[in-house]
Amino acid sequence: MTSLLLALAITVAQVMLGLAMMCAAYRMIRGPRAQDRVLGLDTLYTNSMLLLLSFGIQTGRTLYFEAALVIALLGFVGTVGLSKFLMRGEVIE
């Protein structure tokens, strides 16, 4: 019963994360301002990282955890770069 409940909870979480990713992609594409697009991109990479983590829990493979770590690092650097560009107009000073 416990493993069945865990499998159901992971599947529900994956579906919900997929829906959240679709909402974030919509905000990224249709955002009225550049700040909305950056926020949509930030939410999209966070949701994709969590989706990979849930796949890793479901399958037990470490490859998903490593990919989630890479997405988190690159997403953070991308968000900082885009934020700096929006504030100052240049990334490298």
UniProtKB/TrEMBL annotation:
Q: Where do the TM regions start and end?
A: 6-26, 38-57, 63-87
Localization recorded for this chain is: Cell membrane
* Any one GO molecular-function label of the UniProt entry: sodium:proton antiporter activity
Q: Would I find Cell membrane among this entry's keywords? A: yes
For membrane topology, the record states:
Multi-pass membrane protein
Q: Which InterPro entries match?
A: MrpF/PhaF-like (IPR007208)
Q: Identify the keywords attached in UniProt to this record, alphabetized.
A: Antiport, Cell membrane, Ion transport, Membrane, Transmembrane, Transmembrane helix, Transport
Q: Does the keyword Nuclease apply?
A: no
Record's Gene Ontology CC terms? plasma membrane
User: Which family would the database say this protein is a member of?
Assistant: Belongs to the CPA3 antiporters (TC 2.A.63) subunit F family.
Name the record gives this protein: Monovalent cation/H+ antiporter subunit F
